[in-house]
Amino acid sequence: MPIRVTVWSENYHEPREPDVRRRYPDGIHGAIAAGLAERLGERVRVRTAVLADPEHGLSDKELADTDVLTWWGHMSHEDVADEVVARVRRRVLGGMGLLVLHSGHYSKIFRALMGTTCSLNWRDAGERELVWTVAPGHPIAAGVPHPLIIGEQETYGEPFGIPQPDELVFISSFSGGEVFRSGCCYRRGKGSVFYFSPGDQNYPVYHNPEVRRVLANAVLWAAPAGGVGEPLDNAHTPIRW
Amino acid sequence: MPIRVTVWSENYHEPREPDVRRRYPDGIHGAIAAGLAERLGERVRVRTAVLADPEHGLSDKELADTDVLTWWGHMSHEDVADEVVARVRRRVLGGMGLLVLHSGHYSKIFRALMGTTCSLNWRDAGERELVWTVAPGHPIAAGVPHPLIIGEQETYGEPFGIPQPDELVFISSFSGGEVFRSGCCYRRGKGSVFYFSPGDQNYPVYHNPEVRRVLANAVLWAAPAGGVGEPLDNAHTPIRW
Amino acid sequence: MPIRVTVWSENYHEPREPDVRRRYPDGIHGAIAAGLAERLGERVRVRTAVLADPEHGLSDKELADTDVLTWWGHMSHEDVADEVVARVRRRVLGGMGLLVLHSGHYSKIFRALMGTTCSLNWRDAGERELVWTVAPGHPIAAGVPHPLIIGEQETYGEPFGIPQPDELVFISSFSGGEVFRSGCCYRRGKGSVFYFSPGDQNYPVYHNPEVRRVLANAVLWAAPAGGVGEPLDNAHTPIRW
Amino acid sequence: MPIRVTVWSENYHEPREPDVRRRYPDGIHGAIAAGLAERLGERVRVRTAVLADPEHGLSDKELADTDVLTWWGHMSHEDVADEVVARVRRRVLGGMGLLVLHSGHYSKIFRALMGTTCSLNWRDAGERELVWTVAPGHPIAAGVPHPLIIGEQETYGEPFGIPQPDELVFISSFSGGEVFRSGCCYRRGKGSVFYFSPGDQNYPVYHNPEVRRVLANAVLWAAPAGGVGEPLDNAHTPIRW
C-alpha cells in the first residue's frame, strides 16, 4: 500500500513574482511533489494542497487520507487558520509524519510542536550552502553526497531556536561562515517530524536531485509504521496486576 | 550571589481540604520553599507566590527577580491567565530555570514549552513508588538513594506524552506495575527545564528529605549560568567575514 | 531484495541442560530465526550461526553476506575470539545492523561499541515483566501491546551501565519493583544498534508472538538503508571550495 | 573545597619544535593550567602531568586526587600505557570529569569511552574557525561570544566518528567550508565527558581568553557533584519489596 503524501504550500510567491513562476512553473509544491514521485514511484501516492484551497486543502477528510504531510510557508504563516493548525497538530501527535521545509521553521504548526521560538539568523546573498552529513547511518542520509552542494542559497544561521533534535542528521555551512542544523529529526507523540532547511523561492533548490533524495528518504522515515490514530490523552487506570 | 527562587503553587486544595491543610499547614508551596531553604541555605533566596496573588505573583517585576521558578498546579490549570503563561514562557526561553512538579505536567506552561499533550495514565491508590536513578553521573541525582522510596503515592504511568528528554535522570515504578519517566531534563531556548513527578496534595511527599534533595539539586542545575535575557529571535545578519 | 539476517547464539545451555533443550529444541537461535521468518516472510533471508562454528560462523565472507546480526550470549562471552569481535565491530561501524539480546548486554561486542560497563542488577525469580512503550511513534513499537506482558522472566534492574540511548523505546518493570531500560536504540558509525532485554534460556520468551514482533520491527529498523561499507576513518582533506 | 584538576599533555612537540616552545613556553599543559587558574581562581586547584612522568603522572594516588582531568595528545597516543588508559577509564566511569581536547579525539581513552572510530577529516592550512553556540542555555556556553572567532586554526571536518552527543553545545565552521561538532557533552557511567576541538600546537589557541572561558566552564560542568566512587558493576539483587 503506498504512503499517502500531501505536499502543502502557501503558494504566495508563485502567482505574484514572475521569476519564481519561471523557476517553479507548477509551484513549489509542484516541484516537491514531482521530486517525490520521481524518487519513490509506486511507493507513494502524492497530492498537493495550497493555502487558497477550501480549509487550506487540509480538511478532516483530507488529513485522514494523509500519512505524511510536507509543509512549505513563508509570507503567509499568519494566514493559516488556527483551527487547521490544531487539526494538523492533532494528526501529527496521532502518528502522521510531518516534513517542515525551509522558512516553514516559523510556521504556526512547527512552533506549536516545538514549543520554542524556532527563530534563526538569515540573509539573502546567494551564498553557497554545503550540507554535511553527521549521522552517516541514518536512513535519511542514505545515498546523499557528503557534502551536498547547493550553489546558491539563502543563508540560515545559528542560533536556531529549536529543542535539541532527537537525531541530528545534517549540518550546513554557508560561504559567509554561518552554520545551521539543517536536518533535524523529532518524535512528537506518535508522529515523526523532520525539519530540512535547504529550499527557497528564489533558488531552484527543489529541482536539485540530491535534495529530492533527502525529501524522499525523509518521507520513508516519517511514514507511520503503526498507522495513525488518536493522540495520547490522560486516562484513569485501574490496578490490573 | 544567591539564586533567586520563586516557589509557585495554585493553593487550591489547602484552604478547601482539612487533611491537606494538616499535611501542608504552610501550603504545598510552603513545604517546597522550606525544603529548598533547608538544603541550600545561603545559596538561595526563596519566596513563594500563589494563584490568588495579583498577577498570580508573577508580574514582570517579580519574574525579573527570579532565576528559578518551581511550578505546582492541579485543579486550576485553566485559571492561570494566558498572559502570565506567555510571560513565564518568555522568561524561560530567555534563561530562567523552571521546575515543573507532579500534576504540573498538565499546566499550560509545561504544555506550551513541550509542544505535546503531556498526558499520562494515573490512579490514586496509595501505592509505593520507587524512584530509580538511570543517570548516576547527573548532578540532579547526586546523593539520592537508589531507589528513593516513597511509601504512598499517586500512581503515574506511561505513555507520558512528552518529547524525549535531553537527559533522563529518574524512572519510577509503582506497586501496581506501572513505570514512569519521573525525572526529565530539557533545554529550551536559553532556559533549563526539569520535570519531577513525585509529589501530591494527598501524600506528605514534599516533607521527604530525599525528595527535597532532588529539588535542591535541580535548582542548582537549572540556575542560569549566563544570566537571563531576551529569548532568541529572528535576525537579519550581514556578511561579516 | 531481502534483508540478510544472521542469528547468532553461543548455544551453551541447549546441549547441556535438558529443560532448555525442551524449551528450545532448535536452540535459542532457532527460535529467534523462526520468529523472524514467521513475521517477515520474504522480506528477510535468515541463517543461524553458533560459537562452535568455524570462526563462530562469522567469517569475513559470512559477515559480508549479513545486513543485520542478532546476538545472544551468556556463559561464553569470554570464549568469543577477540578478532571476531573486532571484525563484527568493524562491520557494524560500516553499516551493519546489530540486535543485542538479553544477557548479550555483557558481550564483548556490546561493551566495545558502548564504551561503558554495560552492567546491571539481576536476579532469577520468575517474576512478571511488563514492557511499557515510551516512544509510541517509533517503528520498533509498531503494533506492540502496551504493556507487553511476560509472565515469568529473569529480573534486570537499573542502574544499567549504558550511554543514554539515542532513542529509548521500552522501559520494563518487574514484580519485585525494579525498572529497566529494555529497548534502546543507538547509531554507531554507519550502523544501527538495538538492545532488547526480554529473553532468557530459562523462559520461553522467544516463542512469545509479541516479542517476535519487536525483533522483527527491530530488524527492519536496523537494516542499513545505504548499504554496508568501510567504517569512517581519518582523512587528510584538501581545500575544495 | 576546590575542584582538583589535573591538566595532562603528552608534551611531545614542545621540547622538539622551537616555534611550539616559543608559543607555549610552559607547554600546552602549562597554558591550559594557567587559563583555568586565571578564570577559576580559588574554585580550582590545578596541577599538570605529562607522558614522561612516572606512570604518566596518572598513578592511582594521583588519580584519586583528581576530580577533573583534561587530556591533550597528538603524536604519542600509542605510547600511553594501556594500564594507565584502563585506570583513567575506570576513574571516569566512577565519576571523574574528563575534558578531551583537540587531537585528543584520537586518544586511546576517548576511543575506549566512545566505542566508535572517533575519526575525522583534517588539514592544516591556517584557516579561520568560527565556533557557534547551538545550546545557548548550556552552562558551558555561558558568556561565550557567538561566534567565538579563532583567526587561524587547523581545520577539522565531519564526519566525526562519535556517538551523537547527549548535548551538543558548539558547532564550528572553517573558511574552507567544513563544519565540525566542536563542543560535545557525554555522560558515561558516573562521569561527565566534554570534547572541545579548538586548540593546536601550531596556533596560540590556549592563550585565547574565550577558549579559556569555555574550558573553565567545562571544568565546572564536569566536576562530579556526587564525588567519585567505583564504576557500576553487575550485582545479584534480592527481592526487597
Structure description:
- Four copies of one chain form a homotetramer.
- Chain A has 241 residues and is of the alpha/beta class.
- Chain A has a domain at 3-117 and 184-222: Rossmann fold (3-Layer(aba) Sandwich).
- In chain A, 26% of the residues lie in helices and 30% in strands.
- Chain A is built from seven helices and ten strands.
- Chain A has a nine-stranded mixed β-sheet with strand order 2-1-3-4-9-8-7-5-6.
- The longest helix of chain A is centred in the N-terminal third of the chain and has 14 residues, at 27-40.
- Chain A is globular and about 60 Å long.
- In chain A, 62% of the residues are buried.
- Chains in contact: A-B, A-C, A-D, B-C, B-D, C-D.
- The A-B interface holds A 93, 106, 112-117, 119-123, 125, 155, 157, 159, 161, 163-164, 166, 176-178, 186-189, 231-241 and B 93, 106, 112-117, 119-123, 125, 127, 155, 157, 159, 161, 163-164, 166, 176-178, 186-189, 231-241.
- Chains A, B, C, D: Pfam families: ThuA.
- Chains A, B, C, D: Residues 4-222 form the ThuA-like domain.
- Chains A, B, C, D: This is Trehalose utilization protein ThuA.
